[in-house]
Amino acid sequence: MPIYEYQCGECGKEFEYLVFKSSEVPDCPACQSQKVTKLMSASTFFSKSASGMTESSSAAASSCSGCAATSCGSCTP
To answer: Model pTM?
Structure first.
């Protein structure tokens, strides 16, 4: 059962919702509108550094500001 992020088209509130059925669409918890849109979630990744420390990085914390690519392989430093 995944948790999805949604945004209300009426009041703009962003919220998370645990989905039990793939066809289930939640109402906005703030205004009860049914005009909600599923958002793309930013992922967080954990890895070990060369020193053995666990480091986290986030797709939202990319050094590429305004990048719309799905991977940094297409970015030029």
So the answer is: 0.53
